[in-house]
Design a protein that fits this description.
single chain, about 130 residues, alpha+beta, five-stranded antiparallel β-sheet
Length: about 130
């Protein structure tokens, strides 16, 4: 009787992970490399990884921004430093750092972990 919310939650998380992995793979395949520059670095007061704001220009002349994790940028990136970004020419707002987008598909532990946990929750709820 109470399994439906868990099934929906598990399948929703699985769907999110699949689409996020697909996005990364699309950028890896057809992404266009452009230079970006780091315009801001936010470090959490309680510690943890920094978030970097990267600004890049697309061929149509628009300036776009991307917020990336510290682990997705070259080590010791500071404000003003250049960072290579890949963006999707069909949807220029979809972008990731080249370091993150070119990571081997099996190295996306976060998404594969989310897929495994969400699939386990959905299946356990369905057959309980």
């Amino acid at each position: 009787m109470h399994k439906i919310p868990y099934i929906v939650l598990g399948l929703g998380a699985l769907l999110f992970a699949v689409f996020a992995l697909r996005r990364r793979l699309v950028l890896r395949r057809r992404g266009v490399a452009v230079p970006a520059h780091c315009s801001a670095v936010q470090r959490p007061a309680e510690g943890g990884p920094a978030r970097l704001t990267l600004r890049y220009a697309t061929p149509d002349g628009r300036t776009r921004s991307l917020v990336a994790g510290e682990g997705d940028c070259p080590a010791e990136t500071r404000e003003g430093d250049p960072v290579e970004v890949l963006y999707d020419p069909q949807h220029p707002s979809r972008a990731e750092t080249a370091l993150a987008a070119r990571r081997a598909p099996w190295r996306h532990y976060d998404l594969f972990g989310l897929m495994g946990v969400s699939l386990a929750v959905a299946l356990a709820s369905a057959f309980r």
